[in-house]
Amino acid sequence: MEFLVNFNELLELNLILFSRNNLRKNVVVNFVEFTVGINVSITEIDFDEFGNRDDLIASGTLEINETAGWDHNIKWCCRIDHMGIRHKSET
User: Fold this and answer.
1) 53, 47 in Cβ contact below 8 A?
2) Do the bridges between strand 56-64 and strand 86-87 make them parallel or antiparallel, or are there none, so unpaired?
3) Residue 64 in 3-state DSSP?
């Protein structure tokens, strides 16, 4: 399952805000219901220095947001795996 994200919403180097609700549309516009531990692929549209599309990508698992800061209204986060965030061209 692939979802669009904004990698500027990182809480930690490997934790990103994901969803306020238990349902969210994936990139093919199907609704997906979340449970703890679901594996997802996350993508942000990006371009290289020449204007060629080279999206940022990562994979991870969903977990309940346990932070108490400005992001407390977000229910779900994605814990990014050991591969980290990279450009699609790097895979």
Assistant:
1) yes
2) antiparallel
3) strand
- CA-only gyration radius of the chain, Å: 13
28: left (phi over 0), alpha (psi -120 to 50) or beta: alpha
Handedness of CA 37, 22, 74, 2 (dihedral sign): positive
Tens of pLDDT, residues 44-67: 999 999 999 999 999 999 999 988
39 sits in which H/E element: strand 39-44
**Domain segments of the chain as ranges:** 2-90
Cβ atoms 47, 23 nearer than 8 A: no
37 C-beta neighbours (distance < 10 Å), count: 9
Q: Is the entire prediction scored with pTM above 0.85?
A: yes
